[in-house]
Design a protein that fits this description.
Helices cover about 60% and strands about 5% of the residues. It is α+β, with helices and mostly antiparallel strands. The chain has a domain of about 90 residues: Tetratricopeptide repeat domain (Serine Threonine Protein Phosphatase 5, Tetratricopeptide repeat, Alpha Horseshoe). The strands form two sheets. The chain has a four-stranded antiparallel sheet, covered by helices on one side. Strands 1-2-3 form a three-stranded antiparallel sheet, with no helix packed on it. α3 crosses α4, α5 packs antiparallel against α6 and α8 runs antiparallel to α9. The chain is elongated, with a radius of gyration of 27 Å.
């Protein structure tokens, strides 16, 4: 088929019988191309794009995909569906990743890289895929995690999806905390807390309370305000029907009381943490919390005994970071 003939100004096209207005061109993603190869793949992953070429396509070939997926680049939904399909075929789900149930494998990173490249050249990805990109970036690239969290905040705000908005605000606060931006951490968690209360998301309210209770008093709440929040956290545990003592609440409460010089009450909270702990790290934190209270209130003999007991527990159970911290505190007594 011969190429169409256009007028010099490009506004009209010759049909062979008459001049007609130039039809709108097919949507173009980009004139760029992205090529990815990896020995783990069953073949190359190629993203080929040529402007205004309806036959151009994106081809995904991956051991996770049980065959090739071919997407016409002019259909952004096909692109989004194919990437989502790739994640689904290897069982990667953003809802599970929240609880760290799924590792960020090389295969996950490969599909995420493809999705990232598609977005970089203008493709529209579905929200779940952007969540998946956020989780991958959260594990290895803080700046990218911030970018994806901003996208998700914008999407869920625009769509009035307040539960999801509350989730990304609360979680991205931890990203900023990792980066040392405690003020942004406080601002994001505070926003999430307000939303959780407005829409009665009690489970999310609980998470936000624990985060806020651990913020620096020079940035966020006063000690008294933190104590009120934590008392609300214990109320929420009862309202939610969670009869198990919550380790996170006891940790925050123990630290709060210790900072107020209420060592007896703080030690009770840390002893509850030891009983409530479901992991060796939580139990170790409780034991070291008790030892620290002894030390700060000037009871050196009991502090030495408590620190040595905690250090032994940490070494036996492989909590070496806690063990080193305990050794340093013991040496300073």
């Amino acid at each position: 088929m011969s190429s169409p003939v256009f007028s010099p100004d490009g506004k009209f096209m010759w049909t062979g019988a008459e001049w007609i207005p130039t039809p709108p061109s097919s949507p173009s993603v980009s004139t760029s191309s992205v090529n990815m190869e990896d020995s783990m793949m069953s073949g190359d992953v190629n993203v080929k794009q040529q402007s205004n070429d309806i036959s151009s396509a994106i081809n995904l070939k991956d051991s996770a995909m049980s065959g090739d997926i071919v997407i016409n680049q002019n259909n952004a939904q096909e692109i989004a569906d194919a990437v989502a399909t790739a994640f689904n075929r290897i069982g990667f789900s953003r809802s599970l990743q929240k609880n760290n149930d799924l590792p960020i494998t090389q295969e996950v990173e490969q599909i995420a890289k493809l999705a990232e490249n598609l977005q970089n050249v203008g493709a529209q990805l579905d929200t779940d895929t952007i969540w998946n990109l956020y989780w991958v970036a959260r594990s290895n690239d803080i700046e990218k995690a911030k970018q994806y969290s901003n996208q998700l905040i914008e999407i869920h705000t625009r769509n009035n999806e307040f539960h999801q908005l509350c989730c990304i605000l609360a979680d991205s606060a931890q990203v900023y905390a990792t980066d040392g931006d405690r003020q942004m951490e406080y601002n994001l968690v505070n926003q999430a807390l307000n939303i959780s209360r407005e829409y009665n998301f009690r489970d999310l309210e609980f998470e936000c309370i624990i985060s806020l209770a651990n913020t620096d008093t020079n940035i966020g709440l006063s000690l008294n305000a933190q104590q009120e929040l934590l008392e609300r956290a214990f109320e929420l545990m009862n309202e939610l029907g969670d009869t198990r003592p919550h380790a996170a609440a006891y940790t925050a409460y123990g630290n709060l009381l210790r900072n107020q010089g209420k060592y007896h009450e703080s030690m009770t909270a840390f002893e509850n943490l030891i009983q409530a702990g479901t992991s060796t790290s939580e139990i170790a934190a409780g034991m070291l919390g008790v030892a620290t209270c002894y030390g700060e209130k000037g009871d050196k003999p009991n502090a030495i005994i408590a620190f040595q007991r905690a250090i032994d527990y940490c070494i036996i159970n492989g909590e070496l970071t806690y063990a080193d911290w305990g050794k340093n505190e013991l040496a300073s007594l």
